[in-house]
Amino acid sequence: MADILSKVTGRTIRRTVADDEEWAAGLTAHGAPEAQATMMLGLFRAARCGEFAATSAALSELIGRPATPLSEFIEGAVAAG
Q1: Backbone angles phi, psi at 66, to 5 degrees
Q2: pTM beyond 0.85
Q3: 20 to 30 A from 27, CA-CA: which of 20, 45, 60, 73?
Q4: Helices vs strands, H then E, count in the chain
Q5: Using CA atoms, how far apart are residues 35 and 18, in angstroms rounded to an integer?
C-alpha cells in the first residue's frame, strides 16, 4: 500500500509496523472500546496469515460491474483533491 501511495502522490510514504498489543492499546487510549480494538486486531492478524488473500468474482457480481482496483481508487481520490 505504501508503494501505491508513494507512486500516486509523488511523495515518500513510509510504512510503520507497531507491535500488536501496542497498537490495540493506542486504540483504547484514544477512546475505542477494548472489545472493538481486540476485534480489529483479530482482523489484522488474519490478514497477516493470508486469510483474505483469495479473490473471486463475487464483488463484481454483487455490484454489477467490475471492481475498481485499489490503485485506481487512490488515483481518483488524489485527483479529486
Answers
A1: -65, 145
A2: no
A3: 73
A4: 5, 0
A5: 19
Residue 23's φ and ψ, nearest 5 degrees, are: -65, -45
**CATH class for the domain made up of 2-80:** alpha beta
Contacts of 28 (CB under 8 A, 6+ apart): 34, 37
For 32, other C-beta atoms within 10 Å of its C-beta total 15
User: Which pLDDT does position 2 carry in this prediction?
Assistant: 79
At position 35, the amino acid (one-letter code) is A
What is the pLDDT, as a whole number, of residue 81?
78
Q: From start to end of 35-79, where are the E strands?
A: none
The domain locations on the chain are 2-80
